[in-house]
Specification:
The chain has helices at residues 2-22, 32-51, 81-85, 106-113, 123-140, 165-173, 214-232, and strands at 55-60, 71-74, 92-97, 116-118, 144-147, 158-159, 177-182, 198-204, 244-245. By secondary structure, the chain is an alpha/beta fold. The longest helix is centred in the first third of the chain and has 21 residues, at 2-22. It folds into 2 domains: 1-53; 56-91 and 142-245, Glycerol-3-phosphate (1)-acyltransferase, CATH 3.40.1130. It is globular.
Amino acid sequence: MIRGYAFTGIYYVLSLVFVLITLPLLILPGRAAVSWSIRQYCRCVRFAFHWIGGVKVRIEGKENLPDGAYILAAKHQSWGDGIIIYPEIRDLTFVTGDHLAKFPLVGGILEKLGAIVIDTCGGGDRKVRSLEEGLASAKSEGRRVLIYPEGHLAPPGKYFRYKAGVWHMQRETNLPVVPVASNLGAFWTQQDIRKRSGTATVRILSPLESGLPKDLFLERLTTQIESECAALLKDTPFACEATRLISDPKPRKVD
């Protein structure tokens, strides 16, 4: 637990420091300076994760990434998922809920980065519209897009139903969808302060074939990611023959 508390303290200090570093860069034209700052932040967190948290991260399968723009459909088990992936992929944008934009000073950074911020409070139509608008902008700029198809942080060894948003993205853009499996959650579980030492693996898989009907696309995406996650969890405390489907968390009531 000592490593976990030490890393968590460093994580929050780095987050605050880089927010303050990045804010003055918002006035510069383009997004290059802000993107550079966020990549350095991610690398510093990964360095601390290794040397303070005791977890080395291995990236496998980058040879599976297509040239040009594509959609990364990644497993989401940990707060660290995006931090690990972001500096590995050039010109990456990402889909996120509008909850992040509500943190002080973060909204402006997300806007400058060109993040696709989904309206999570406006109902299905507004969610779709905000996704389509952000996706159109990313496609026009030839950027890569990271999305978590489950829409929630899943505990290691379990998964939520994969949502159809990624299929709609592929249909609208005709971009290849690249699945990404991971066992990072076995070492940095969701928002847990405790960290388990070892070597985590993020594995980039072969792109799915294009033009699949929705149900078949989601079945193959789920099978490809979850079977690989089960294999990666083999030598961890969360080892399982196969990951298990669980119900989506109930939405919080708003008074």
